[in-house]
Every structure is written in C-alpha cells, then in structure tokens.
Design brief:
10 helices, about 25% helix, alpha+beta, HSP40/DNAj peptide-binding domain, Helix Hairpins, binds zinc ion
Length: about 350
C-alpha cells in the first residue's frame, strides 16, 4: 500500500490545511465526473482514502504510530474497519437479540377418501411451544424487568485493546455474563424459567380443501413453535395421508370404480343404481355393453383443489359370464349359438383391443 503522505504529495509534517489543499487539487483532477479513465478512478480511491486517514487527527496519529502497513490494506481488513471499531462507526456490533424465531413443526393428518372428495374441517392437536402468559414472553417474573449487564454495560461485547504494528487495535468478543444479550434477568419468570415460552398442547382447526392428495404437505405459517423470549413463531407443516377406499379409487380428480354386469344385462341393457359419495346414482347400461367399457358420471369426482368444479366418476364395466347353468339355460344358449353362426372366435388386432383401451 502506498504511503498516504506520498499519495497526497505532502510532507509528513504537513499541516491540516496543507493536506486539505493537496486533496482538493488532486480531487479536481481525478474525480470520476472529470476524469473517467480507470487509472484515474483507482488513484482517486487511493487519494480519498489517504485524505480520510490524514484529515482526522486521531486516525492520523494512529497512522503515524503504526507507520506503513506492511500487509497492505487487504491483509488486515483495512484501516476503515479498525477505525469503525474504535470510534463506533461500524454499528454492526451490538448486543444480540434475545428473541429467536421458533422451530417449524410437522404433523400428519389421516384422511378418508370421502373427506378428500369434498374437503373437511379437522381439529388437530399439536404439542408445541406457546407464549408464556405469565410474563408474555419477556422472561422476567411479573413486576421485575431486565437490567443492563454491568460487565459489558449493555454492549453485549467485551472489547480489548491489543498492540499491533498499526498501534492499538480493538478486538471484541461476546460478553460471557449476559451471553451477548447486553441485559440480564435478575428474577426469571417461574412458569417458563426465563424462556418466555412454555410447552403446551394446542388445538388447531384446519380447513382441508377438497382435492388434496396423499403425500401433500400443507404449510400453516406462524402456527409452529413460538420462539425463545416471545420471538416470532415457526411454521406448522401438515402432511396429508389418505387411506385407500375399499370400492373407489382415485385417478387425478376422477374417482374410479368397477361394476360387474350379468351377461343378459350387458346384452339387453339395464338401469341400475350405485352408492357413490354423493349418495345413490342412477346408472344407465346401454344394450351391448362390453367388458372394459367405461360409463362416466360427470362432476361426481373429487373437488378440484385450485379451481372450481369436480372431476368425474368413471365406472368400468366387467361383464360376468354365467356359470353353473341348468339344462334349460344351456339349451337356450345352444339355440342362440345356432342363430349366431356368423360369430366366430378370432384374434384381435392389438390396437383395437378393448383391454388396450382399459383405463
Ligand atoms: Zn414466563
Ligand atoms: Zn454483558
């Protein structure tokens, strides 16, 4: 690092006035508004820094005592840092806040499929930290208050002067008496032992919207643990688990189910009802129904989570071939077979296979 006196072009015993004049003269030449060249800007920085150091009598004395900094400004954090520490210019060092943000919490809610179809209100119990109502989070026994730490005098830091090449350098470390808070609690609140919060079971009414899926994680901001000393609360995460249903499946926002249709109903058509989550639904079976056919009941599925409306209910048909026929029934089928000689057993093209279309 260049010598500050040399940078300004003044003698080591130059007066304040001489230093100021030298700086003004150089600044007029090098100021970025006047001289945009990169070298000029670099020099302007050096000149300005030299002036900052030498124009202040205290920092000039420090500089003179320390002489030239053999490490260069980068090697030692620069003079600015040291002076900040000395004269309180930095401001970033002070007592730390006792308040901390609370932890996030995670719980699981078990839902049945019908609760997911329409949405449901659930009362959840959470074991968590809540604000201490005795001290309202300020940690002190009611009627008492925190006092300024008499060791660090509220700074939260203990400063120590160390002699170095640069003169006296101040180092600071957190105060052990107040643990850096700057204040101590002479009489901690008995209910929270000076923590400002206590453990409690808390009930939360959770409105679960229709359409949530198994594995979804809901975030309830500010519903987690209250922080230390009444600090802001963390978030509560709720993992949604949906139990499988014995009859209905779910495919996106559609519900699915399978109905078994006797052969004669599949041939001739029929009217039937099924019990869905909406209650009894009339289902019309068209004549000529095949295994794998799907009957769709529009709007009878799961509520959409992010928009209005619902998915569909898809009913898949499974034709039941009769077994254990008596003599008369067998005879009827034999007659039918004679009348339908054109029907034959054959290979089906894969692409037109009903099984390929099954959903
Ligand atoms: Zn308390
Ligand atoms: Zn202290």
């Amino acid at each position: 690092m260049a010598d500050h006196y040399e940078v300004l072009g003044v003698a080591r015993d130059a007066s304040e006035d001489q230093i100021k004049k030298a700086y003004r003269k150089l600044a007029r030449e090098l100021h970025p508004d006047v001289n945009p060249a990169p070298e000029a800007q670099e020099r302007f920085k050096l000149v300005t820094h030299a002036y900052e150091v030498l124009s202040d009598s205290d920092s000039r004395r420090q500089y003179d005592q320390g002489g030239q900094n053999p490490f260069g400004s980068a090697g030692f954090g620069g003079f600015g840092d040291i002076f900040d520490t000395f004269f309180g210019g930095g401001g970033q060092r002070g007592p730390r806040s006792r308040q901390e943000r609370g932890q996030d919490a995670l719980i699981r809610v078990d839902l049945k499929l019908d609760e997911v179809v329409f949405g449901v209100e659930k009362e959840l119990e959470v074991d968590t930290a809540v604000l201490c109502t005795t001290c309202n989070g300020d940690c002190c026994r009611p009627g008492t208050s925190m006092v300024t730490c008499d060791v660090c005098r509220g700074a939260g830091q203990i400063q120590r002067q160390v002699r170095s090449l640069l003169g006296n350098v101040v180092t600071s470390s957190p105060c052990g008496t107040c643990r850096g808070f700057g204040q101590t609690i002479p009489e901690p609140c008995l209910d929270c032992r000076g923590q400002g919060r206590v453990r409690a079971r808390r009930k939360i009414d959770l409105n679960i919207p229709g359409g949530v899926e198994d594995g979804l994680r809901l975030q309830l901001s500010g519903q987690g643990e209250v922080g230390f000393a009444g600090g802001p609360s963390g978030d509560l995460y709720v993992d949604v688990a949906v139990a499988p249903h014995e009859t209905f499946g779910r495919d996106g926002d559609d519900l699915t189910c399978i109905i078994e249709v006797p052969l004669h109903d599949a041939v001739l058509g029929a009217l039937t009802t099924i019990n869905s989550f909406d209650g009894e639904e009339r289902v019309e079976l068209e004549p000529g129904l095949q295994t794998g056919d799907v009957i769709t009941l529009k709007g009878k599925g799961v509520k959409h989570l992010r928009e209005s409306g619902r998915g569909n209910l898809r009913i898949q048909v499974q034709v039941k071939t009769p077994t254990k026929l008596d003599a008369k029934q067998k005879e009827i089928f034999r007659q039918l077979a004679k009348l339908r000689k054109a029907d034959s057993i054959k290979l089906v093209e894969h692409s037109s296979s009903r099984f390929g279309k099954r959903r």
